[in-house]
Amino acid sequence: MARAPRYAQYQLTHWPDPALLEAVQSFEGECLVTQRLEQSRDGLTVDLSDNRYYPPDDPNAALDVGSHHRLLRLEWLDFGEGGSNRVFALESYDEFYGGPWLTYHPSRQGVQSPGLYEVVNEPDPWIAEILAENGGTDVFPPSGDPVMLSEWAREMNPHLRETGRFFPADAPLSASGTSSPVSIWIGPQSAESDEREKALAEARAKSEARWEARKLRPRYRHLFLVTGTSLLEILCEDLPRWTWVTD
């Protein structure tokens, strides 16, 4: 599927991190600019600023009255603090090739944003496209309970249940997609029976509470980052962590 037909299907909303949206809006330049885009074995890094940014050691900053060194860094880390945030698919285009995006701009859906958006279709057109173009034999994500199955995979695995963006409200704890059962340590075996039972009950309650909270979060994120220099579409596990590199 070409980009234009895919974009035409997207249901868009604001990037679901108000603090990041506020940070981006604090830039004073004329437009948001991607200063760095780097993908490595460790994950994906994107540095953002505006068109009044200069590196701290750039002598030309003194010639621009409105210059600054403020730089915002977004990171999707495969194995970072808080767990994995894997990037499953990534497409990046120079602003010159942003025509399809402008044709189906989020403003047509009443969504005004400083360049950060989320796609919330159910099912997701990009995932469906990826599975279809990969020989129709695969599932998304590559491990754990499937969010979406290709037609072939659905026929060959009738026992699998597609979850979509969210786990169903009635999904049991065993559907979490973890590869091993939850281990519960209850102290020395010499503890009294009622104390062990109490410890078990508390541990189960905590596991169930975490599971209920997890069912409220999307199983994946489909994000757009659009600046005055590039358009970046990301299919990933979760929102990135972000920090001010220079402020």
Describe the fold and architecture:
With 247 residues, the protein is an alpha+beta fold. 23% of the residues lie in helices and 25% in strands. It has 6 helices and 11 strands. The longest helix is centred in the C-terminal third of the chain and has 22 residues, at 193-214. The chain is globular. 19% of the residues are buried. Residues 179-183 have low confidence and may be disordered.
Produce a short descriptive summary.
This protein is an alpha+beta fold and 247 residues long. It is built from six helices and eleven strands.
Taken from the alpha-carbon principal axes, the silhouette is globular
The average pLDDT score comes to 88
**Separate helix tally:** 6
What is the rounded distance between the termini? 41 Å
- Uncertain segments of ≥5 residues (pLDDT<50)? 179-183
Give the biggest beta sheet.
Answer: 5 strands, antiparallel
What is the structural class?
alpha+beta
Give me the side-by-side strand order of the main sheet.
1-6-9-10-5
Helix content: 10-25%
Strand percentage? 25-35%
- Tell me the radius of gyration: 22 Å
Q: What pattern of helices and strands is seen along the backbone?
A: HEHEEEEHEHEEHHEEE
Number of strands: 11
Features of this protein?
247 residues, alpha+beta, five-stranded antiparallel β-sheet, four-stranded antiparallel β-sheet, 6 helices, 23% helix
Topology:
Blueprint: H1 3-9, E1 12-14, H2 18-25, E2 32-40, E3 43-50, E4 71-77, E5 87-94, H3 99-103, E6 116-119, H4 125-133, E7 139-140, E8 148-149, H5 151-156, H6 193-214, E9 221-226, E10 230-236, E11 241-246
Antiparallel strand pairs: 1-6, 2-3, 3-4, 4-11, 5-10, 6-9, 7-8, 9-10
